[in-house]
Amino acid sequence: MFLDFAPKSKFPELWAGMGRIVRSFSVAATVLPALKVYDTVGSTALAAGCCLGSIGILLVLLPYISRVAATSEQDKKTSEQQELSPQERLKLYAQRCSLTPRETEVLEMLLSTDDDLQRIADNLYISRRMVQRYVSSIYEKTETKTRLGLYRSYMNFTAD
User: What is the number of domains present in the chain?
Assistant: First the structure.
C-alpha cells in the first residue's frame, strides 16, 4: 500500500522506505508471539492458526486486491489501444524528421538489421554510395551522428 501511495506523494522515496520499516516491525510483532504460541500449543495448532489467520487477512484485503486488479486491466486495455504498430511508429518518426520515402526505407533497414551498408544497398538495389548519402541525410535530419544514436533517437520517440 505504501508503494501505491508513494508516487502520489511529495517525497516518494520516504514513503517507499516507510513501507519497508512498517513491514519489519509487523514481522517482529508477529514472530515473538508466535514463539510463545508454539511453546504452548505445538506446531500443528500453530500451523492451523496461521492458515486461518492468512485466510482472514485475505478476506479483509480482497476488496483492495480486486480494485487494483480491475484498474490494472483497464490500464492494459488503454495502453493496447494507444500502442502503435512498428510500421506506424516508423512512418510517424519519418514524418517528424521530414524523411523522404527512400530515406525511410534505408532507416528501416538501419534499425531492423545489423547489415552493413553494402548489404543494405544490395537489398534495396541501389549503390553503396547512394546508401551512404541517404544515411548522411538521415543523420542530419534526425540530429544524430551514429547508428546507435539513430537507434536511441528512434526508441525515445513518442508519437504524442
Answer: 2
Between residues 141 and 77, the one the model is more confident about: 141
Look up the domain containing 51 and give its range: 2-82
What CATH number is given to the structural domain containing 109?
1.10.10.10
The residue ranking higher by pLDDT, 1 or 69, is: 69
Domain stops at, among 22, 57, 82? 82
**Using H for helix, E for strand and C for coil, what is the string for the chain?**
CHHHHHHHCCCHHHHHHHHHHHHHHHHHHHHHHHHHHHHHHCHHHHHHHHHHHHHHHHHHHHHHHHHHHHHHHHHHHHHHHHCCCHHHHHHHHHHHCCCCHHHHHHHHHHHHCCCCHHHHHHHHCCCHHHHHHHHHHHHHHHCCCCHHHHHHHHHHCCCC
pLDDT at 68: 73
